[in-house]
Write a structure and sequence with these properties.
Layout: E1 3-7, E2 11-12, E3 18-25, E4 30-39, E5 46-51, E6 57-59, E7 67-71, E8 77-82, E9 91-100, E10 106-110, E11 114-118
Length: about 120
């Protein structure tokens, strides 16, 4: 059973920083793209940042220059370093990944989410 587990969400003041982590567990062959999405109350889920196995990264315009996505060497964990947070960054942050099974089938997975609240 493949799972994505997020951690690191918290309550932080405006201007503060947080680091989110997402680790993939279970039995699989490899992981290609891993990404962070977020969903604010009464809003649609949106892409925050993504990183391919080859090292290509992509960011939402609203977080460019403030957030950094990175992956560990085994390529099974991603991080999201979030700096200079604003109340608009509040939401549930979800990890997403394209994972290849040992039976050679690609499947997209979601984590359960971690809450980030930016408030004074």
């Amino acid at each position: 059973q493949v799972q994505l587990m997020e951690s690191g969400g918290d309550l932080v003041q405006p201007g503060g920083s947080l680091r989110l982590s997402c680790a993939a567990s279970g039995s699989f062959a490899t992981i290609n793209k891993m990404a962070w999405y977020r969903q604010a109350p009464a809003k649609q889920r949106e892409l925050v940042a993504s990183a391919t196995r080859g090292g290509n990264t992509n960011y939402a315009d609203s977080v460019k220059g403030r957030f950094t996505i990175s992956r560990d060497n085994p390529q099974t964990t991603i991080y999201l370093q979030m700096n200079n947070l604003t109340p608009d960054d509040t939401g549930v942050y979800y990890c997403n990944a394209d994972i290849l099974s040992k039976s050679n089938q690609w499947r997209n997975y979601w984590g359960q989410g971690t809450q980030v609240t930016v408030s004074s």
